[in-house]
C-alpha cells in the first residue's frame, strides 16, 4: 500500500525540536526573592509556555488522512515538493504514476562520450540528466559543455563536487524553459558544423533535433530511457487521489497515466498543477480542465501553481 506523506512528518520534526526552554524567561524586573513569589513566577512561566504550545499546535498542518494535493513522481523524488507543501500547511498524498526504465542506448552513451567530442550536450529533463551523469562518469568525466532546458533540469548538476564541475560546464539555459525555445536559442558559436549530443527519453518529441537541424546543427540523439505507467495502484489510495483538490504532475507521461486511472463512470474535473508549459499543453490536449503551470519550471514555481489552484478551488467551494 502506497504510504501517505505530508504534514505528519513535518509535525514530528517540529515537535521534536520543541522545548520549553525555547521560550524567553519572564523579565528580571518582576522576579521576587520570596518563596511564594518564586512559586507564582514558576506557575506563570508554565502557563505562558503551555499557552504558547497550544498556539503552536493550532498552527500545525491538519492530518494527512484528507490530502489536498496528489504528488505523482516516482517514490523518492517527491521529497522537496512534499516538504515545500507541508511548510505551508498543505497535506499531500504520494501516488507514483510512472516508472523510468533505461534502454540500451544508456550503455552506448558512455562509449560515445569517450570516443566523440561534441560542442553541446542537450539535457531536457532531470531523469535524462541522471542517466547522462552516470554515463559521463563511466566515460572518465570528459570535458563537456551542457545546455539545459530550465532550472529544474539544471538542479541535477548542482550536486557535483568541484573537481567534476571543472569538466562539466552548464553553459546555457533558454529564455523560456521549453524545447522549441532551446532549439531556437542554443548558441552556434559561428561554427559551420556545430555538433550536439541529445540523450533523451524514447517518448520525447522531435522538436529539439528538428529545430537545431534547421539552424545547421548536427544532432546525435540517443534514447537512453523510457517511461511506463505504474502497474499496480492501491484502490483506496486511488480513491483518495480522485477526491483531492489538485494533482501535481511533472511530465506528459504522468498525464496519460493519470487519465488511464480515472474510471469511465467518474467525472473528474479537479485542478492539475503542472511543472511546466510542456506538461500543461499535454494536459489540455488530453481534455483536462483547470490546468495551472508556472512560466519557468522548478519547485518554487510548481508550488506557486499548486497554491493558486487550491485558492481557486476554495473559492469555488464557497460559491
What's the structural blueprint in terms of helices and strands?
Blueprint: E1 4-5, H1 7-17, H2 35-58, E2 69-71, H3 79-86, E3 92-94, E4 98-102, H4 104-115, E5 120-123, H5 126-138, E6 144-148, H6 151-154, H7 162-165, E7 168-172, H8 179-185, E8 195-201, H9 207-214, E9 218-229, H10 235-243, E10 246-249, H11 252-261, E11 271-274, H12 277-285, E12 291-292, H13 299-318
Parallel strand pairs: 2-3, 2-10, 5-6, 5-8, 6-7, 8-9, 10-11, 11-12
Antiparallel strand pairs: 1-3, 4-9
Q: Which residues sit in consecutive blocks of at least 5 with pLDDT less than 50?
A: 1-64
Compute the separation of the termini in Å. 36 Å
Number of beta-strand segments: 12
Structural class: alpha/beta
Major sheet size, sense and barrel closure: 6 strands, mixed
Based on the coordinates given, report the CATH architecture of the largest domain.
3-Layer(aba) Sandwich
Helix content: 40-55%
Strand residues, percent: 15-25%
Which word captures the global form?
A: elongated
How many domains?
2
Tally of alpha and pi helices: 13
> Overall mean pLDDT score?
80
Give the H and E element order: EHHEHEEHEHEHHEHEHEHEHEHEH
Q: What topology, given as strand order, has the largest sheet?
A: 1-3-2-10-11-12
CATH class of the largest domain: Alpha Beta
Looking at the structure, the CATH topology of the largest domain is: Rossmann fold
| Rg calc | 25 Å
